[in-house]
Predict the structure.
Amino acid sequence: MVTLTDASFDEEVLKNRQPVLVEFYADWSGTHHINTPNLIELKDIYGSRIKFCMVNMDNHKKLVKKYGIGNVSTILLFKNGQLMDCIVGMIPKTLIAQKLDVLLEPEKESLQTI
């Protein structure tokens, strides 16, 4: 997983056209230590289709404030630089996978009337 900072967040997440999962965590959080093995396993499953990143909440307060993160662990899902979904707390791996599958769905083109 890529460790993000205040300085690298925009380039790695917001300017990235690839779907991105960002976990906001703290080293002291039990939830983070429970979620991490699931995220590592999902990273292995999804490979290069989704970028997996993490932000240490204690060290990057600017990002915590910007995204209104109040709980450890919080996972934000981005697509084309846009925040698409938020997962808070301990979540089963299957639910995270379902949300990642939605991120990978192709964009629906609008129908044009001729």
